[in-house]
């Protein structure tokens, strides 16, 4: 298909464009391009301050975090370089010096 956005109401990918409007043939929902940005915004991962995070960013941990399956702790203030955003509950994939690969929650970090 083309790169038209999916229908924000029903998720259908069979949307088409009618001048400034997008139209969904499945549920008859019509919307304007600007509105899709709001929907896409939900996929954005933000840090504890509400700043948008991106792949490759450097972040700082704002809370001591226990490392699952070990006694190690990621200390508050730890800088983590080159993060990778992933979906799910722990939405940041990264590698921390002295600890290794782990996943963090974006709510416990801030952009450095
Ligand atoms: Zn629809």
TrEMBL record:
All copies of domain Protein YjdM C-terminal, residue ranges: 45-112
Keyword Hydrolase: yes
GO molecular-function terms, A-Z: hydrolase activity
Domain annotation Protein YjdM N-terminal: ranges: 4-32
Protein family membership: Belongs to the YjdM family.
Record NCBIfam families: phnA (TIGR00686)
Descriptive protein name: Phosphonoacetate hydrolase
Organism lineage string: Bacteria, Pseudomonadati, Pseudomonadota, Gammaproteobacteria, Thiotrichales
